[in-house]
Structure formats: structure tokens, C-alpha cells
Amino acid sequence: MTSPIKNQTNILEKLSIEKLNDMQQEAQEAILSSAEIVLLSPTGTGKTLAFLLPLISELDITCLEVQLLIIVPSRELAIQIEQVIREMGTGYKTNAVYGGRAGSKDKTEIKHRPAILIGTPGRIADHLRRDNFSSEFITTIVLDEFDKSLEIGFETEMKEILALLPKVQKKILTSATQEVEIPKFVGLKNPVIIDYLDKGTSQLKVKTILSASPDKLDTLAELLCHLGNHPGIIFCNFKDTIQDVSDFLNGKNIGHGCFYGGMEQKDRERALIKFRNGTHRLIVATDLAARGIDIPEIKFIIHFQLPQRAHEFTHRNGRTARMFNDGTAYVIKGKYENLPDFVEGAEVEEMQKAPVPSASGWKTLFVSGGRKDKISKGDIAGFFMKQGKLSNDQIGTIEIKTDCAFVAVKASEVNSLIQLVDNSRLKNKKVRVTVI
């Protein structure tokens, strides 16, 4: 099918995507032709790109105010969407605003108006109340993962935002959940519903691991040895449990990161960066990691503790078997533990004895310069190879942020590299280079 969107081929090339999947193509056509769309598709199937491509094509390049507003339930999702738009290379200014950082930083960034503004409901509502940007030119609103925003208590802010947007002509709601109830305050009259929920998790296997003890920790270690050196997420219900699991894994020399709501925003972001670049192959997380975060394709997730509700189980499982690939969700059943109905029928897997997974061969370095310093990924790679004496295959994933960058480097080279490049000039800026 030929795309109606100009420059779409170039954008997909920049994102290393060969072609859109069926859901993305259907969503694109609906968004270009309809004013109200509800897009239902599993986590990991590409909903973000499905709505961004057509909406960006409709922006007015001559308008100097915010035109497209994207409301998201979490900081991580806001940052992720901002990054995707930057990688698309559209030329439209984009900013993300969210709780957990100074409002003054938001004001500075949006003083020169972005065409696209992404944010959490509380922070967007606050900026609208303070008239920090005009709502007169916002013609499109996206409520991404809208059910999650409602679930975590943002209904009042979402109502307020919609009431403060007089010129909205197009509304798009997305979710990865079955049987979602569309809130009345959104004011949808006759939406086009695109439902791919039954088509996205067919490759998922759910298996049970039987533990001989109630605390399940030794069984978790055996399972991780059985699974080997592959990236995965271990889900827990509480941050105290995460601490217990983390302490246990440290004692077994099993490398990992942690991710939960009580962490500082900086630490949460860095945990995801290390997971994406392979410094950590495992991350121990609460349901905060079940959706709306940017992580690589993973082959398994482990339910160390099961969630209370079936839909939370589904969201966790959606972190694997993404984009219609296969994956496995393991449920560790403790001695005396009864499994809920939504796990019924899961095959019991027998584990094979195996050694402890080897440590990752990568470490992550922080570089104190970023986009605002006109520093690119190519600049950093060149700097590390020329001045730091690294070869191309000793440098891994590079992530550029506004005022800093994070680089995966072969662990064996880190100490000598830092001696060669720390406190040196990268382009026109003297940068610090440290291990995180």
C-alpha cells in the first residue's frame, strides 16, 4: 500500500523500520480521515509510531505555537515519545514536561514554543492554569494509555485539560487493555475503534516454576541460571520485595538493575539506559515497568510475585512476545501458594542445572555534554576512538540527552579510556566522563 504521508519512507529508514505493520497502517488511515479514534493494541506493537506519523504530517509548519498535545501516564513514556520524535527527524520542535523536575526547567524549554508537547496530566494541567503556553492552536490531543492515567488518579487533571482546550478538533485515545471504558468527559460521539488486542500475544507462552520453599529466592536463582545470558524482567509487587530480591542477587553475583516508583527520577532513567545498552541484562521492577517504557526486545519475564488482577498480568506479559514475536512468562509458585484463575493451565517447566550467568561485558559512561552543546552520537564515537583509542566494536549504544550523554563501552576498556578522555574537549566543550 502506498503511504499518503510525505517523507514517510525517510522517517522509517531513520528508525530502521522496513514497513508498518497492519495495525499501524489501519491506524494511519483512520487518523487521517477521522476526528475521533480509539486505538487498542498490545504493548510493544508500535502504537506510538501509529499515531505520530499521521499527526505530524498534519502539523502547520508556519505555526509558532503548540499544535499537538500528547498526555501520558508516566515520565518514562513522555521521555520515550520525545526521543522517538527526535529520531524521526521531522524538524518540529518537541518537548516533554513531567513531575519530578523543576517547573522552571519546563518554562525555559517551552519559552520557544514546541509544535508538539508531551506530558503527564498533572504537569500539563499546571502549565495550562498558569498560561505558560497558548491553547488556542492546539487542534489535536492524544490520550496515550488513557486507562493507566485514570487508574493512577489523574481523572481530575484530564478533565481540566480537556476543558481548557477550546479548539481541539481531533481526539485519539490509546490503550493496551481489554474492555476499557471510555470516560464521558472526553466527549467522544462516534469514534472509529481499531482493535488489535486479540492479535498481539499469540506467541506468548506462560509457564510455572515450582518452588520448594515459600520465599522462592533460591528458585529464582536456579531459574536465572536455567535461562542463561538473556535480557529479562523480574516483576515484584512492592519496593521492599525488590530490595530483598536485589540483595539476594547481589549475593549470588548476578548483575541487575532496579526500577520502581519510589526511586529518584534520575536513577529510574539510568536503570533503563543500562538495561537498554546491555550493562544490565536483568531488571527487577514493579508494575511501573509493565508498559509505557522504552526497553529492548526480551525473551522472558518472571513473575516473582503475581499481580492482584488479570489485566496487570497481561500488561507484564506484554513486555515479551512483542511485535508478534515469541516470548515466555514464568510464574514462580511458592510452596503453599495458590495461583489465581488467570494463571490456570500454565505448563510446569523442569529446570536444568546451569552455571550462574556471566557478567555483562559492558559498562555505562556518563558524558557531561549533549544536544544543547551540538554534540552528536558521531561526535562521541569519534572522540572515544580517536582520543580514547577504542575500536568501533568496543563502543555500544550511545544515547544523547539535552545536556548529557550515556555510552556503553566494553568493560575491559573503561579505566584506560577515562584516563585518556576525562576533562578533555569534545567539540567546543570540556567534558567529564565517569562510570555510572
Describe the structure.
The chain has 436 residues and is of the alpha/beta class. It folds into three domains: 192 residues, Rossmann fold, CATH 3.40.50.300; 145 residues, Rossmann fold (3-Layer(aba) Sandwich); 74 residues, Alpha-Beta Plaits, CATH 3.30.70.330. It contains 14 helices and 20 strands. Strands 3-4-2-5-6-1-7 form a seven-stranded parallel β-sheet, with helices on both faces. The chain has a seven-stranded parallel β-sheet with strand order 10-11-9-12-13-8-14, sandwiched between helices. A four-stranded antiparallel β-sheet has the order 16-17-15-20, with helices on both faces. Helix 11 links the parallel strand 10 and strand 11. Helix 2 runs parallel beside helix 3 and helix 6 packs across helix 8. It starts with 7 loop residues before the first helix and ends with a strand. The mean pLDDT is 91.
